[in-house]
Amino acid sequence: MSRWQPNARDRLKQAALELFVEVGFAEATVPQITARAGLTTRTFFRHFADKREVLFAGEEELPARVAKLMADAPAHLDPMAVIVEGLNSVADTLFAGGRDFMRTRRAVIQSDEGLRERELRKLSTLSDAIRQGFVDRGVDELTAVLSAQVAVTIFSVGIGRWLDQDGDLPLTHFVRDTLDALRSVTAGRP
Amino acid sequence: MSRWQPNARDRLKQAALELFVEVGFAEATVPQITARAGLTTRTFFRHFADKREVLFAGEEELPARVAKLMADAPAHLDPMAVIVEGLNSVADTLFAGGRDFMRTRRAVIQSDEGLRERELRKLSTLSDAIRQGFVDRGVDELTAVLSAQVAVTIFSVGIGRWLDQDGDLPLTHFVRDTLDALRSVTAGRP
Question: pTM (2 decimals)?
Answer without folding.
Answer: 0.87
